[in-house]
Structures are given as C-alpha cells and as structure tokens.
Batch of 2 targets.
Target 1
Amino acid sequence: MSTSTASDPRPLVGEPTALDLLNTRWVQDGVGHDLLTDTRGLAVWLASNGLESRFVADEAALEHVLTARAAIASAVDRPGDAEAASGVDAVLEFGCVRPTLTADGPGEITKFDDPAWGPAWTAAYSYLRLLRAPDRIRACAHPSCVLHFFDTSRNGTRRWCSMAVCGNRAKASRHHARSREN
C-alpha cells in the first residue's frame, strides 16, 4: 500500500470528493499542474479526502481515477448532456451502495467489483450527491483559473475558488485598470 507524507500542493482542497478530483489539475503562475501524474500524487489525493485507509494508491486505481476525473469534468462542463452523463454512469457500474441499519442508525456499505475502482467510484458517487443542488457546482470566475467549488454560501453567489487568491487578483486587475484611466 502506498502512503503519502507529502503535503498537498494544490491551492484549493477540501471540496466535495468529485470537485476535489477535478481540482487535481490547476494553474499557478501561468503553469499547468497535475497532481495525478503518478501513484504518489494519487496517495496525496486519497489522504486529502480521508480515503487512504480504504484504498490502495496503485497503477490500476490511478488509471480508474483518471477515467473518473475525465468523466466528471465532462459532466460538469456539459450538464444534461447524455454522452457526458454516460461517462459518469460507466464509472458507477463498478460499485454499488447497500443500505444498512446499524446500532447507530441508518448507514451505507459500498461494494466494488474490483477494489481498484473504489476511489474512482467514490468520486463519481460524490458527483451524484452534488447534483441535488446542481446550480451550486461552480467553476471559478477568474479567467485563468480552472478550479471548481461547491457554493455553500447562504445566498449562492460565491464566484471565486478563493477570495484571497482569485478574488484579490480580480480586484487588483480592476484597480490597475482604473489607475491607468486616470
């Protein structure tokens, strides 16, 4: 089992699993980055999502997670598109949820045809859950940012992945444009 002690280098973490998977690609200082170029990056992503004790960061899991990332990206970019939906559905075919009743109350047990599909399936299932509020799934409004977030603001008007980064860049650009006009 591959484990990671490396810290997560991404600028935005902590989003729901599906969007956090999309955020394994990011742009920083004009340079594109991809956390999932190898199993070490997969181990970092698994740890960031609390999945490292459930799944192995191996080549098969990495391949399946990349498939899920592409499918979820298509579905987010093309909501309502049957072909994009079929990509997510294809990932979901590799697992299922069985409702259960425990001493603590209702629960769920996930089962996978092949455990290597576990992380990919978990991300795809997370996307299904986000679709309960599809208008809250957002891409950052900054033109050079590729990150996604789930808008949990009270009135649903969040525009930036991070006000401290992209929001401030937008404010600085507007200020610079006004300064040049004067």
Target 2
Amino acid sequence: MTAFELVDLCLHTEDLGRLEVPLWGDNDGVGAEPLDLPEGTVISVGLTFRLGRDIEGLTFEETRVRDGTVLSTARTVLGGFRTGGPYEVRLPAERLPLGRAHCGVYVVTSRFTDGDGRELLTLRHRMRLVPQPAPHPARRPA
C-alpha cells in the first residue's frame, strides 16, 4: 500500500444527492466527461481514503480553472491520521457561482499533501456549470 490511497471523491448536494466524480490522473482527461451541475448548487466534497503510514497535517487543496484562468484555490487542513482507514471526511458546504457568466466547463485539480508539503496525490476532474431551469410561472388563485 502507498502512503496515501484515495478510495472515493464525491460531491454531496442538497437537491441532487450524492454524485460520483469522474477523475483522471496524469493523462489529458480524454474520456472523462464533465459533471453537470446547475449554477448556484450547494455542494460538499466527500473524501474517503486509506493510509499506508501515519500522516500529520494532511491537507486537501482544490484549484478551479476556467478558460485557462485560475479562479479559486481552497486549502483545507484535514489533520493527523494513523495508518489504516478507510477514513471519511466531508468538507464544509459551499455554493457554486450564480449567473450565466459563470456557466461553462471548469477543470478542478485536487491535491493532497502531508504536513511537510510533500505531495501525496494529484487528480483532476471537470465540472460544467449549467443554467438553472426556469422557475415555473406563478399561478393565480382561481
């Protein structure tokens, strides 16, 4: 077993439930379809992993890029973990951007490092922000 093994990376949403994230590693992502998410969706990243050694200061970093421009980087220190697992961690919820200007395909790079800054794993996935469906027109009482 390697020092760090990712078992699962998923997104939890209020409206869509639990969504599997199609990941790719060092290749160019051919065949990895973007995950479609409506603008403004509230998501929480779910991580499941195993460890081949004790790791202090395990950190998860996520960078979002659209059209070649880095839009955001979020770093979360997960803490110290002993050899074994699987461990399950759910990150705090966040709302995806609202508005048609934010719609499009984002490349998301997820990186895990230890407390000394050594990279343990880097993976990528794509998500496509799509316009929310139009609300139903209000109905007048009869």
